[in-house]
Write a structure and sequence with these properties.
4-stranded parallel β-sheet; alpha/beta; 3 domains; Transcription Regulator spoIIAA; 423 residues; 18 strands; Rossmann fold
Length: 423
Amino acid sequence: MKKLDIIVKYADLNRFSLAYVLSIIENYAASRRHVNRIVLAKDVVREIERSDADVIVVMYSIMTPQIFEEEFLEEISNVEMLKRRKNVIMIAGGPHASGDPVGTLTKLKFDIAVLREGEVTIPRLLDSILNYDDLSNVPNIVYKYGDKIVKTFDYVPPRIIGSAPFSRTFKIYAPIEIMRGCTHACKYCQTPRISMFRIRYREIDEVRRYCEHYVKHGIKVIRFLAPNGFAYGSDGRRPRPDKIEKLLKTCKQVGDVKLVLGAFPSEVRPDFVTRDVMEVVVKYVHNRKIAIGAQSGSNRLLRYIGRGHDVECVYEAVDLCIEYGFQPCIDFIFGLPGETEEDVEKTVKVMIDLARRGCIIRGHTFMPLPGTPFENEPPGKVHPKYLEALREIERMRRLEGYWKEQEHIAEKIHKYLHSRCIT
Protein backbone atom coordinates (compact mmCIF):
# COMPACT_ATOMS: atom_id res chain seq x y z
CA MET A 1 0.00 0.00 0.00
CA LYS A 2 1.31 3.45 -0.91
CA LYS A 3 2.17 5.77 1.94
CA LEU A 4 1.01 9.40 1.98
CA ASP A 5 2.58 12.18 4.03
CA ILE A 6 0.59 15.39 4.39
CA ILE A 7 2.69 18.42 5.38
CA VAL A 8 0.79 21.58 6.30
CA LYS A 9 2.74 24.82 6.39
CA TYR A 10 2.45 26.67 9.69
CA ALA A 11 2.43 30.47 9.84
CA ASP A 12 1.23 32.61 12.73
CA LEU A 13 -0.85 34.75 10.36
CA ASN A 14 -2.78 31.66 9.19
CA ARG A 15 -3.05 29.92 12.51
CA PHE A 16 -6.83 30.00 12.78
CA SER A 17 -7.55 29.03 9.16
CA LEU A 18 -5.12 26.13 9.59
CA ALA A 19 -7.24 24.79 12.46
CA TYR A 20 -10.05 24.17 9.96
CA VAL A 21 -7.71 22.69 7.33
CA LEU A 22 -6.14 20.36 9.88
CA SER A 23 -9.58 19.30 11.09
CA ILE A 24 -10.50 18.28 7.53
CA ILE A 25 -7.25 16.35 7.12
CA GLU A 26 -7.60 14.61 10.50
CA ASN A 27 -11.11 13.45 9.57
CA TYR A 28 -9.77 12.22 6.24
CA ALA A 29 -6.88 10.31 7.85
CA ALA A 30 -9.19 8.62 10.34
CA SER A 31 -10.73 6.55 7.54
CA ARG A 32 -7.67 6.16 5.26
CA ARG A 33 -5.00 3.63 6.22
CA HIS A 34 -2.58 5.01 3.65
CA VAL A 35 -1.96 8.28 5.53
CA ASN A 36 1.47 7.84 7.05
CA ARG A 37 1.98 11.21 8.74
CA ILE A 38 0.26 14.56 9.20
CA VAL A 39 2.85 17.23 9.93
CA LEU A 40 2.32 20.86 10.88
CA ALA A 41 5.63 22.36 9.79
CA LYS A 42 7.38 25.66 10.18
CA ASP A 43 10.22 24.21 8.10
CA VAL A 44 8.59 22.44 5.15
CA VAL A 45 11.89 21.62 3.43
CA ARG A 46 13.19 19.71 6.43
CA GLU A 47 10.00 17.65 6.69
CA ILE A 48 10.10 16.75 3.00
CA GLU A 49 13.71 15.63 3.35
CA ARG A 50 12.75 13.46 6.36
CA SER A 51 9.83 11.82 4.58
CA ASP A 52 10.01 8.29 3.17
CA ALA A 53 6.43 8.33 1.86
CA ASP A 54 5.55 7.41 -1.73
CA VAL A 55 3.60 10.65 -2.13
CA ILE A 56 4.24 13.87 -0.21
CA VAL A 57 1.48 16.48 -0.30
CA VAL A 58 2.48 19.94 0.91
CA MET A 59 -0.38 22.32 1.69
CA TYR A 60 -0.22 26.10 2.12
CA SER A 61 -2.99 28.52 3.06
CA ILE A 62 -1.98 31.85 1.55
CA MET A 63 -3.06 35.45 1.94
CA THR A 64 -1.73 37.79 -0.74
CA PRO A 65 0.63 39.85 1.51
CA GLN A 66 2.49 36.65 2.43
CA ILE A 67 3.77 36.02 -1.09
CA PHE A 68 6.26 38.88 -0.76
CA GLU A 69 8.00 37.48 2.31
CA GLU A 70 11.56 36.40 1.53
CA GLU A 71 11.27 33.31 3.73
CA PHE A 72 8.15 32.18 1.85
CA LEU A 73 9.73 32.69 -1.58
CA GLU A 74 12.94 30.91 -0.59
CA GLU A 75 11.02 27.96 0.82
CA ILE A 76 8.81 27.34 -2.20
CA SER A 77 11.91 27.63 -4.42
CA ASN A 78 13.66 24.95 -2.34
CA VAL A 79 10.59 22.72 -2.45
CA GLU A 80 10.55 23.08 -6.23
CA MET A 81 14.11 21.72 -6.33
CA LEU A 82 13.23 18.82 -4.02
CA LYS A 83 10.52 17.75 -6.49
CA ARG A 84 13.31 16.56 -8.80
CA ARG A 85 14.01 13.62 -6.50
CA LYS A 86 10.83 13.20 -4.45
CA ASN A 87 7.18 12.84 -5.39
CA VAL A 88 6.00 16.16 -3.95
CA ILE A 89 2.66 17.76 -4.81
CA MET A 90 2.31 21.43 -3.86
CA ILE A 91 -1.24 22.60 -3.05
CA ALA A 92 -2.25 26.17 -2.25
CA GLY A 93 -5.52 27.31 -0.73
CA GLY A 94 -6.72 30.46 0.98
CA PRO A 95 -7.74 33.87 -0.38
CA HIS A 96 -4.73 34.35 -2.65
CA ALA A 97 -5.05 30.98 -4.37
CA SER A 98 -8.79 31.59 -4.81
CA GLY A 99 -8.28 35.07 -6.24
CA ASP A 100 -5.28 34.34 -8.47
CA PRO A 101 -5.20 30.59 -9.18
CA VAL A 102 -3.33 30.93 -12.48
CA GLY A 103 -0.63 33.12 -10.92
CA THR A 104 -0.38 30.69 -8.02
CA LEU A 105 0.53 27.96 -10.52
CA THR A 106 2.63 29.95 -12.97
CA LYS A 107 4.39 32.49 -10.75
CA LEU A 108 4.54 30.70 -7.42
CA LYS A 109 4.97 27.26 -9.03
CA PHE A 110 2.30 25.39 -7.08
CA ASP A 111 0.78 22.32 -8.72
CA ILE A 112 -2.82 22.80 -7.61
CA ALA A 113 -4.86 25.77 -6.37
CA VAL A 114 -7.96 25.12 -4.24
CA LEU A 115 -10.57 27.83 -4.81
CA ARG A 116 -13.08 27.35 -1.98
CA GLU A 117 -14.83 24.77 0.29
CA GLY A 118 -11.95 22.68 1.63
CA GLU A 119 -14.38 20.24 3.25
CA VAL A 120 -15.69 19.29 -0.19
CA THR A 121 -12.45 19.44 -2.14
CA ILE A 122 -9.58 18.22 0.04
CA PRO A 123 -10.68 14.59 0.65
CA ARG A 124 -11.48 14.02 -3.02
CA LEU A 125 -8.29 15.73 -4.10
CA LEU A 126 -6.07 13.63 -1.81
CA ASP A 127 -7.72 10.41 -2.99
CA SER A 128 -7.24 11.41 -6.61
CA ILE A 129 -3.57 12.30 -6.09
CA LEU A 130 -2.78 9.02 -4.38
CA ASN A 131 -4.62 6.93 -6.98
CA TYR A 132 -3.40 9.00 -9.94
CA ASP A 133 -7.03 9.62 -10.88
CA ASP A 134 -8.27 12.31 -13.24
CA LEU A 135 -8.29 15.58 -11.29
CA SER A 136 -11.08 16.95 -13.48
CA ASN A 137 -13.55 15.13 -11.24
CA VAL A 138 -12.45 17.15 -8.19
CA PRO A 139 -14.49 20.36 -7.69
CA ASN A 140 -13.13 23.83 -7.06
CA ILE A 141 -9.53 23.41 -8.21
CA VAL A 142 -7.17 24.74 -10.87
CA TYR A 143 -4.21 22.55 -11.86
CA LYS A 144 -1.48 22.05 -14.41
CA TYR A 145 -1.94 19.43 -17.11
CA GLY A 146 1.14 19.50 -19.30
CA ASP A 147 1.34 23.00 -20.72
CA LYS A 148 -2.33 23.68 -19.98
CA ILE A 149 -4.07 25.22 -16.98
CA VAL A 150 -7.30 23.37 -16.19
CA LYS A 151 -10.15 24.69 -14.02
CA THR A 152 -12.66 22.15 -12.75
CA PHE A 153 -16.31 22.71 -11.95
CA ASP A 154 -17.53 25.03 -9.17
CA TYR A 155 -19.46 23.55 -6.30
CA VAL A 156 -20.77 25.38 -3.26
CA PRO A 157 -22.73 23.06 -0.95
CA PRO A 158 -26.08 24.27 0.39
CA ARG A 159 -24.78 24.28 3.97
CA ILE A 160 -21.49 24.46 5.84
CA ILE A 161 -20.22 20.90 6.03
CA GLY A 162 -19.09 20.31 9.57
CA SER A 163 -15.34 20.58 9.83
CA ALA A 164 -14.52 21.42 13.43
CA PRO A 165 -12.88 24.78 14.22
CA PHE A 166 -10.02 23.05 16.01
CA SER A 167 -7.28 20.49 15.49
CA ARG A 168 -7.34 17.66 17.99
CA THR A 169 -3.81 16.62 17.08
CA PHE A 170 -2.12 20.02 17.22
CA LYS A 171 -4.38 21.67 19.82
CA ILE A 172 -5.18 24.76 17.75
CA TYR A 173 -8.54 26.31 18.65
CA ALA A 174 -9.88 28.89 16.20
CA PRO A 175 -12.84 31.25 16.48
CA ILE A 176 -16.02 29.27 15.74
CA GLU A 177 -17.26 29.98 12.23
CA ILE A 178 -20.98 30.69 12.31
CA MET A 179 -21.36 32.16 8.82
CA ARG A 180 -19.73 31.77 5.43
CA GLY A 181 -20.07 34.04 2.41
CA CYS A 182 -21.62 37.42 1.65
CA THR A 183 -24.41 38.65 -0.62
CA HIS A 184 -22.99 42.16 -0.99
CA ALA A 185 -20.69 43.17 -3.82
CA CYS A 186 -18.04 45.51 -2.43
CA LYS A 187 -15.63 45.84 -5.32
CA TYR A 188 -12.46 45.59 -3.21
CA CYS A 189 -13.44 42.40 -1.35
CA GLN A 190 -12.66 38.75 -2.12
CA THR A 191 -15.18 37.20 0.28
CA PRO A 192 -18.39 37.35 -1.82
CA ARG A 193 -16.58 36.11 -4.94
CA ILE A 194 -15.02 33.12 -3.18
CA SER A 195 -18.46 32.15 -1.86
CA MET A 196 -20.17 32.93 -5.20
CA PHE A 197 -22.38 35.46 -3.38
CA ARG A 198 -24.02 32.75 -1.28
CA ILE A 199 -24.35 32.73 2.49
CA ARG A 200 -24.66 29.77 4.80
CA TYR A 201 -24.79 29.33 8.54
CA ARG A 202 -23.77 26.66 11.01
CA GLU A 203 -26.66 25.09 12.83
CA ILE A 204 -26.98 26.26 16.41
CA ASP A 205 -26.72 22.74 17.84
CA GLU A 206 -23.40 22.29 16.05
CA VAL A 207 -22.07 25.62 17.36
CA ARG A 208 -23.16 24.62 20.86
CA ARG A 209 -21.23 21.32 20.62
CA TYR A 210 -18.08 23.22 19.72
CA CYS A 211 -18.63 25.61 22.64
CA GLU A 212 -18.94 22.63 24.96
CA HIS A 213 -15.71 21.19 23.58
CA TYR A 214 -13.91 24.50 24.13
CA VAL A 215 -15.12 24.78 27.71
CA LYS A 216 -14.06 21.18 28.36
CA HIS A 217 -10.55 22.13 27.23
CA GLY A 218 -10.38 25.22 29.40
CA ILE A 219 -11.30 27.84 26.80
CA LYS A 220 -13.75 30.28 28.34
CA VAL A 221 -13.58 33.20 25.87
CA ILE A 222 -15.30 32.08 22.69
CA ARG A 223 -15.04 34.22 19.58
CA PHE A 224 -17.32 33.77 16.60
CA LEU A 225 -16.15 34.08 13.00
CA ALA A 226 -18.39 35.72 10.38
CA PRO A 227 -18.01 38.17 7.48
CA ASN A 228 -20.82 40.15 9.13
CA GLY A 229 -21.19 39.34 12.79
CA PHE A 230 -24.76 40.56 13.15
CA ALA A 231 -26.05 38.74 10.04
CA TYR A 232 -26.45 35.30 11.62
CA GLY A 233 -29.57 33.53 10.33
CA SER A 234 -30.52 36.38 7.99
CA ASP A 235 -30.92 36.68 4.23
CA GLY A 236 -27.75 38.78 4.19
CA ARG A 237 -29.71 41.99 3.73
CA ARG A 238 -31.71 42.45 6.94
CA PRO A 239 -30.75 41.25 10.43
CA ARG A 240 -32.62 38.56 12.33
CA PRO A 241 -32.29 39.47 16.01
CA ASP A 242 -34.38 36.43 16.95
CA LYS A 243 -31.82 34.11 15.34
CA ILE A 244 -28.92 35.96 16.96
CA GLU A 245 -30.58 35.65 20.37
CA LYS A 246 -31.22 31.95 19.95
CA LEU A 247 -27.56 31.41 19.01
CA LEU A 248 -26.13 33.44 21.89
CA LYS A 249 -28.59 32.17 24.49
CA THR A 250 -27.90 28.55 23.52
CA CYS A 251 -24.14 29.03 23.67
CA LYS A 252 -24.37 30.77 27.04
CA GLN A 253 -26.07 27.68 28.45
CA VAL A 254 -22.94 25.55 28.11
CA GLY A 255 -21.45 27.09 31.25
CA ASP A 256 -19.18 29.91 32.34
CA VAL A 257 -18.26 31.35 28.93
CA LYS A 258 -17.59 34.81 27.57
CA LEU A 259 -18.95 35.26 24.06
CA VAL A 260 -17.41 37.69 21.56
CA LEU A 261 -19.60 38.77 18.64
CA GLY A 262 -19.33 42.01 16.67
CA ALA A 263 -15.61 42.45 17.33
CA PHE A 264 -12.67 40.75 15.61
CA PRO A 265 -13.11 38.39 13.80
CA SER A 266 -16.83 39.08 13.38
CA GLU A 267 -16.94 42.75 12.43
CA VAL A 268 -20.32 44.13 11.37
CA ARG A 269 -21.92 46.20 8.65
CA PRO A 270 -23.46 49.46 9.95
CA ASP A 271 -26.86 48.64 8.45
CA PHE A 272 -27.02 45.58 10.73
CA VAL A 273 -26.56 47.64 13.89
CA THR A 274 -30.23 48.13 14.75
CA ARG A 275 -31.96 48.72 18.06
CA ASP A 276 -33.48 45.23 18.03
CA VAL A 277 -30.04 43.69 17.45
CA MET A 278 -28.40 45.76 20.17
CA GLU A 279 -31.13 44.80 22.66
CA VAL A 280 -30.06 41.18 22.12
CA VAL A 281 -26.30 41.64 21.91
CA VAL A 282 -25.96 43.71 25.07
CA LYS A 283 -27.47 40.86 27.10
CA TYR A 284 -25.04 38.16 26.02
CA VAL A 285 -21.68 39.35 24.69
CA HIS A 286 -18.50 39.94 26.66
CA ASN A 287 -16.86 42.43 24.30
CA ARG A 288 -17.36 46.12 24.96
CA LYS A 289 -16.25 47.19 21.48
CA ILE A 290 -18.15 46.84 18.20
CA ALA A 291 -16.14 46.90 14.96
CA ILE A 292 -18.03 48.60 12.12
CA GLY A 293 -17.01 48.85 8.48
CA ALA A 294 -17.66 52.40 7.24
CA GLN A 295 -14.86 52.47 4.61
CA SER A 296 -15.54 56.05 3.47
CA GLY A 297 -17.19 59.26 4.61
CA SER A 298 -18.41 60.03 1.09
CA ASN A 299 -21.80 58.78 -0.05
CA ARG A 300 -20.72 59.10 -3.67
CA LEU A 301 -17.72 56.84 -3.10
CA LEU A 302 -19.73 54.37 -1.03
CA ARG A 303 -22.12 53.97 -3.97
CA TYR A 304 -19.24 53.55 -6.41
CA ILE A 305 -17.52 50.79 -4.42
CA GLY A 306 -20.81 48.94 -3.90
CA ARG A 307 -21.12 49.15 -0.12
CA GLY A 308 -24.92 49.30 -0.02
CA HIS A 309 -25.15 51.77 2.88
CA ASP A 310 -24.58 55.50 3.36
CA VAL A 311 -22.72 57.70 5.82
CA GLU A 312 -25.91 58.47 7.75
CA CYS A 313 -26.24 54.75 8.45
CA VAL A 314 -22.76 54.76 10.01
CA TYR A 315 -23.74 57.59 12.35
CA GLU A 316 -26.93 55.77 13.35
CA ALA A 317 -24.90 52.63 14.14
CA VAL A 318 -22.41 54.63 16.19
CA ASP A 319 -25.17 56.33 18.18
CA LEU A 320 -26.76 52.97 19.00
CA CYS A 321 -23.46 51.42 20.08
CA ILE A 322 -22.73 54.30 22.42
CA GLU A 323 -26.27 54.26 23.78
CA TYR A 324 -25.91 50.57 24.68
CA GLY A 325 -22.51 51.03 26.31
CA PHE A 326 -20.19 49.87 23.51
CA GLN A 327 -17.23 51.71 22.03
CA PRO A 328 -17.46 51.73 18.21
CA CYS A 329 -14.30 50.91 16.21
CA ILE A 330 -14.76 52.28 12.71
CA ASP A 331 -12.85 51.03 9.66
CA PHE A 332 -11.90 53.40 6.83
CA ILE A 333 -10.04 52.57 3.60
CA PHE A 334 -7.73 55.24 2.16
CA GLY A 335 -6.92 55.60 -1.52
CA LEU A 336 -9.94 53.73 -2.89
CA PRO A 337 -10.29 53.72 -6.68
CA GLY A 338 -12.15 56.79 -7.89
CA GLU A 339 -11.50 58.74 -4.70
CA THR A 340 -11.53 62.50 -5.29
CA GLU A 341 -10.28 65.45 -3.27
CA GLU A 342 -13.86 66.08 -2.17
CA ASP A 343 -14.24 62.44 -1.04
CA VAL A 344 -11.07 62.78 1.04
CA GLU A 345 -12.30 65.97 2.69
CA LYS A 346 -15.65 64.40 3.55
CA THR A 347 -14.00 61.29 4.97
CA VAL A 348 -11.58 63.34 7.05
CA LYS A 349 -14.49 65.31 8.51
CA VAL A 350 -16.36 62.12 9.42
CA MET A 351 -13.29 60.46 10.96
CA ILE A 352 -12.48 63.40 13.20
CA ASP A 353 -16.12 63.81 14.17
CA LEU A 354 -16.42 60.15 15.14
CA ALA A 355 -13.13 60.22 17.04
CA ARG A 356 -14.40 63.17 19.08
CA ARG A 357 -17.48 61.12 19.91
CA GLY A 358 -15.21 58.46 21.42
CA CYS A 359 -14.90 56.08 18.46
CA ILE A 360 -11.69 54.26 17.61
CA ILE A 361 -10.68 55.00 14.01
CA ARG A 362 -8.97 52.06 12.31
CA GLY A 363 -7.16 53.01 9.11
CA HIS A 364 -6.47 50.83 6.08
CA THR A 365 -4.95 51.47 2.66
CA PHE A 366 -6.66 50.09 -0.43
CA MET A 367 -4.94 46.98 -1.81
CA PRO A 368 -5.89 45.69 -5.29
CA LEU A 369 -6.61 42.10 -4.28
CA PRO A 370 -6.74 39.43 -6.99
CA GLY A 371 -10.15 38.11 -7.94
CA THR A 372 -11.95 41.38 -7.17
CA PRO A 373 -13.39 43.97 -9.59
CA PHE A 374 -10.69 46.37 -8.38
CA GLU A 375 -7.73 44.03 -8.96
CA ASN A 376 -6.48 46.10 -11.91
CA GLU A 377 -6.84 49.44 -10.15
CA PRO A 378 -3.72 51.34 -9.01
CA PRO A 379 -2.52 50.76 -5.45
CA GLY A 380 -3.93 53.00 -2.75
CA LYS A 381 -2.07 56.11 -1.66
CA VAL A 382 -2.68 57.85 1.65
CA HIS A 383 -3.57 61.47 0.85
CA PRO A 384 -1.70 64.14 2.85
CA LYS A 385 -5.03 65.33 4.29
CA TYR A 386 -5.56 61.86 5.72
CA LEU A 387 -2.11 61.94 7.31
CA GLU A 388 -2.87 65.29 8.92
CA ALA A 389 -6.20 63.98 10.25
CA LEU A 390 -4.61 60.77 11.50
CA ARG A 391 -2.08 62.74 13.51
CA GLU A 392 -4.92 64.64 15.16
CA ILE A 393 -6.83 61.42 15.89
CA GLU A 394 -3.66 59.87 17.28
CA ARG A 395 -3.34 62.78 19.71
CA MET A 396 -6.85 61.88 20.90
CA ARG A 397 -5.61 58.29 21.45
CA ARG A 398 -8.32 57.05 19.12
CA LEU A 399 -6.20 55.58 16.31
CA GLU A 400 -5.48 52.01 15.17
CA GLY A 401 -4.52 50.33 11.91
CA TYR A 402 -1.74 49.29 9.54
CA TRP A 403 -2.24 51.74 6.68
CA LYS A 404 1.50 52.49 6.41
CA GLU A 405 2.45 48.84 5.85
CA GLN A 406 -0.55 48.30 3.58
CA GLU A 407 0.49 51.18 1.33
CA HIS A 408 3.78 49.39 0.58
CA ILE A 409 2.08 46.01 0.19
CA ALA A 410 -0.46 47.52 -2.22
CA GLU A 411 2.36 48.61 -4.52
CA LYS A 412 3.87 45.11 -4.47
CA ILE A 413 0.50 43.50 -5.23
CA HIS A 414 -0.03 45.83 -8.18
CA LYS A 415 3.39 44.98 -9.64
CA TYR A 416 2.85 41.26 -9.04
CA LEU A 417 -0.55 41.20 -10.79
CA HIS A 418 0.91 43.01 -13.83
CA SER A 419 4.10 40.97 -14.21
CA ARG A 420 4.92 37.49 -15.46
CA CYS A 421 6.82 36.57 -12.35
CA ILE A 422 6.90 37.56 -8.71
CA THR A 423 9.31 40.42 -7.95
